[in-house]
TrEMBL record:
Keyword set, alphabetical order: Magnesium, Metal-binding, Methyltransferase, S-adenosyl-L-methionine, Transferase
InterPro entries membership: MeTrfase_7 (IPR005299), MeTrfase_capping (IPR042086), SAM-dependent_MTases_sf (IPR029063)
GO biological process terms held by the UniProt record: methylation
The protein's name: Uncharacterized protein
Coiled coil residues, start to end: none
GO MF annotation list: metal ion binding; methyltransferase activity
Amino acid sequence: MASSKQMLTSALHSMEHTQGVHVKIADLGLGDGGHTFSTADTVVEVLGRKLAATKGGTAFLVFFSDLRLSDEFITRFRQFENRVTDSGKEYYVAGTSRSGIYWPLFPKGELDVVVTTNALQWLSHVPRKVMEKGTMTWNKGRVWIEGAEKEVVEAYAEQADNDLVTFLKYRKEDMVVGGMLFMLMPGRPSGLENQVTDDSPFKLIFTTLMDQAWQDLVDEGSVKEDIRDAFNIPLYLRNTDEVAAAIESCGGFKIEKMETINIADPMNARQQEFMRDPDSYGRAMANLVQSGQIKPMLEAYLDPDLTSKLFKQYAIRAANNKEFLTKNSFYHMIAVSAIRV
Ligand SMILES: C[S@@+](CC[C@H](N)C(=O)[O-])C[C@H]1O[C@@H](n2cnc3c(N)ncnc32)[C@H](O)[C@@H]1O
C-alpha cells in the first residue's frame, strides 16, 4: 500500500484550500480498521502540516462509515480514540454503521476529503438479470462471473457503472468545491475481457475454490443445484476506462491522477511454509475469504451449518490446490484522486 499512500499524500498536497474552520474527512467502507486508521493518520498529518502554515490550530473531524462495524473495528476504534486524545492532536472521530456508500451520507457540502479503499468493487446488489432462470444472462453453475457468458459479465458491468455513478453523485453532494476524493479499488488491466489475469489471487479465491466447494456440497446432496445457481457474488473489477467514464458521466469531479498499481499477494512470502503444511494453507485461504463480505452474505443465504460446511470444503480444496504456491500472484489495483469542481 506504500504506493497508494504516496499518491494520497501528493493528492492532498494538490488540494488548493479547505473552506471550513474544521477539516472534515470521511473514510467510507472501512472494514476491520486495519488500514483505515493509518489512512486517517496520513490525511490528518499531511493536511495538518500543510494548513499549519496558513491557518494554524485547524481541528480535524474524521467520520468512519461502513455497512457494519465489526468487533475488530470497535476494538481498534477504542485504541484509536485513546491514541488520538493522548497525542493531544485536534483530531476528533466518529463511527457510523449501516451506512451504505451508494446513499447520501452527509449534509450538502460537508466534507473536505473522502477516502474509500477496497470497497467500490462490491456492488450494491447482484444484478437481477443474472438470476433469471433460462435467460441469456442467467449465471448458471457458477457463483462469480470469471469465465461466465458475455451477457452475464455485461449485466455486472452495467450494474458496476450504475453503482459508481451513484456513489460519485452522492459524494459530489457531500463534498465542498475544492475537496478531494481518493478511491482505491481492485480492478483489472485495460483491454482484458476476463475479470482477472492468471496471476490474480481473485481467480482462485472467488472462482476456482468457491465453485469447487459449492459443487462438493451439491454432489454430496447437502445443497440443491438451484440454491447454488441462485447465489452470486456481487463483485466487479473495473478497468481504468470504466472508472474514467463514470467520473465523466457524473460530472463535478476533475481527475487529478489515475494510476494502476500491482500489489504482491502477502501469501507469496509464505509459499515455502504452505508447501510444507498444505492444511495450514487451506485454513489461511478459508480465513481470507471469510474475512470479507462473503461470510455475512452466505450466512444470510444458507443456514449456519451449511455455511461452515462450505468453508470447510473450501479449506480442503485449497489445501489440495498447490498451483498457486508455485507462482507469485498480484492484486491489480486502480487508484484515483479527483478534485471536486
Ligand atoms: C475489503 S474491506 C476494505 C476495508 C478497508 N477500507 C481497507 O482498505 O482495508 C471492504 C469494506 O467495504 C464495505 N462495504 C462493501 N459494500 C459497502 C457498501 N455498499 N456500503 C458501505 N460499505 C460497504 C464492507 O463492509 C467492508 O468492510
